[in-house]
Amino acid sequence: MNRLSWFNAVSLTLGFAFLYIPMVILIIFSFNESKLVTVWAGFSTKWYGELAQNEAFLNAAWVTIRVAVFSSTLATVLGTAAAYVLVRGGRFFGRTLFSGMIYAPLVMPEVITGLSLLLLFIGIGLDRGILTIVLAHTTFSMCFVSVVVSSRLVTFDKSLEEAALDLGCSPAQAFRLVTLPIIAPAVISGWLLAFTLSLDDLVIASFTSGPSATTLPIKIFSAVRLGVSPEINALSTIMIAVVTVGVITASLVTKRAMVRQKQDELAAARTE
Amino acid sequence: MPFQSDRRTGAALNTNVFAPWEDPQAKPLIQFQNVTKRFGGFTAIDNLSLDIFEQEFFALLGPSGCGKTTMMRMLAGFEKPTDGHIMLGGQDIDPIPPNKRAVNMMFQSYALFPHLSIWENIAFGLRRDNMPKRDLEDRVEEMLRLTRLEQFARRKPHQISGGQRQRVALARSLAKAPKLLLLDEPLGALDKKLRQDTQFELMDIQEKTGTTFVIVTHDQEEAMTVASRVAVMDQGKLMQVSTPDRIYENPNSVYVADFIGDVNIIEGRATANGDEAYQIDWAEGQSPLTATSSTGFSNGQSCHLAIRPEKVTISADRPADAINAVQGKVLDIAYLGNLSTYYVELPNGTIIKAQSANTRRISRRSFTWEDPVWLSWTATAAVLLAN
C-alpha cells in the first residue's frame, strides 16, 4: 500500500476534521454527567434515561416517523410514475417542459415551497396537522425519487419490456412483472432518500405543521432556542446512530450483492 | 466461403422439394403489402411487398440501417406501418398489439429477465396464457430438453454462459409455439466457433418444431447457411429475394453480387455474339471477354461482368483452351490457411482477385509476389449485370 504524502495526509485530516468534529463533540457531551453542556463532569447515560421519560419528545418522534413513512411511500409512487412517463413516454407534447418542471423543486428555496403550501392549505381550508405535513413532504421529496428512478430507467434495457409484451403481457403487467422488480433497488433507495429528507426537514414542516402535530426537528429547534440541554445531545446522538447504521447496512448489502453476482458470473464462465 | 447444409442441397435431389414460393397455389403465411414505414422524414421501409411461406427459414440480410430490423419490429407489433398492410395467415395484423399476436421474438440482447430463473424465464409466456400447472411444467421441461438446458433450470441468467443464454432466449420464444418466430441477430454475441455450431442447432430446431422462422442478420454467411430463402435489402428496398445458391450464383445487381461474398467487377460494353452469348469490350488494347447471359443486352450497352474469385483460375502459362484469359502480375497474396487469394494487377491497372485452394504446403506455392501470371475463366463463370 502506498504511503500518503504529507500534503495529502494534511488535506485529508483537515477535511474530515471539518466534517466530523462538531458531531464528535455532540456525541461526547451526550454522555456528560453535568447539566451544563459545555463543562465535562464525568461519564453518564442519564440523559438517555431522561429522554425516554420525555413525553413531548416521544410524541414528536412518533409524528416524525409516521410523516416520513407516509410521505416517502407516496413520493415513491408518484416519483416513480413520473420518472417512468418522462423516460419511457416517448416524445409527447410538453415533455421537455415537464422534465424541467419536475426538477425545479430541487433548487427552489424551501421557504418558498413552504410558504406556497401554507397559502394553499389555508385557501382550501385544510387544518394543519399530520396530513398537511405528509402532503408537503411528498411534494418536495417526489422529485428526488423521480431523479433517482429515472437515472436507473435510462440505463434499463428497453427490450426487456418489449420481451414481456411479446410474451403476452399487457403494458401494466409488463411493468409489474418485469420493470418494477428490476428497478426495485433504485425505487428503494429513492424511498430511503425521501424518508431521510422528511426526517430532517425543518423549514417546510414549520410552515405546514399545526398545534396538533409537531415533528422532531421543530421540537429540537424550539427547545434549543430556550437553551441547549444534554437531552438534545442524547437525542441527536441516537439519530446519528440510526442514520449511520442505515447507511452502512445499505452499502454492505449492495456490495455483497455485487460480489455474489461476480462470483456467479465466474462460475458460469467455467462451465463452458 | 458460404456453404449449404446437406439438408437443403440434399432436398434439391428429392422430387418433393420444399419451395412453396414456386407454387402459385401456395398461400403465404406473411404478406407485406406495399408497406412503407417513415420515422419523421426518414423512410425506413419504402413501398415494399414480400410473401413469406409457412415453415420457411427466411433471412433478411443487409447492412445496418437498411430497414431489416424495422421489418421485424413491424411483424412483432412494436412498430406500425405508415402505409400498406401486413397480413399474417390472411388476417391484417396492423391493429393487433404485440401481446395479442401469435408471433414471438428472440431479441438481439436476449432480453432475459434477470430476476427470474431459467425455468421461470421459459415459463413466463405460458403463465400469461394461464396454462394449467401440469401442462406448463411439461412444456417448460420439453423446451429445456430441446435446448439442452435441463441442468441449468434453477440458475439465474447471469449465472450461465453466453451460448447458454442464447439457448434460453430461443426456448423462451418457442415455448408458446408461435406461428412465427422472429430472430434479431440471434448469434451476433457469440464467437465464431460457437456461432457455427448454433447455426446448425437453430436449423435442427426449426425443422423439429416446424415453426416459420424469420431471421435478421448482417452476416451473409449466416444467412446463406440457415435460410431457405434470403432477402437482400438496401435502403428500405428489397434488392433480391431468392434461395441462397441463386443469390450467390445469379445475383441480379452489382449491389447484391458485391454484398454476398467476394466478387470481381469488370465494366465494359456488350455486343451480341450468338445465342445468349455476348462479347464485352472492357479495355483498350485488350481482347474482348466472352460471357453468356439469359437477360438481353443491346449492342453497345454498358454492363458489369461479375466473376467470383474462386471461379478464376491462375496459371503460369496461358491455358490453351481458355475462352477468357488475361495477363497480369501478382500484386498481393492473402493467405487464409485453406485458401489463398491472389490480387493480380492487369496492365491497365485493374485488380482481379483469384482464389485457389492451398493443396500444397505454403513453401511449395507456385506463385509469389511480382510473378507474371495468366488468369482465365469460362464463358459461364461470370454473370453479366446491367447495373
From TrEMBL, chain A:
One of its GO terms (cellular component) is plasma membrane. Residues 61-253 form the ABC transmembrane type-1 domain. One of its GO terms (biological process) is transmembrane transport. Coiled coil: none annotated. Its main location: membrane. It is a multi-pass membrane protein. The chain crosses the membrane at residues 12-31, 60-86, 98-124, 130-154, 174-194, 232-253. It is found in: Cell membrane. Keywords: Cell membrane, Membrane, Transmembrane, Transmembrane helix, Transport. It comes from the Bacteria. InterPro entries: Bact_Polyamine_Transport, MetI-like, MetI-like_sf. Belongs to the binding-protein-dependent transport system permease family. CysTW subfamily. This is Inner membrane ABC transporter permease protein YdcV. It comes from Ruegeria atlantica. The gene is ydcV_8.
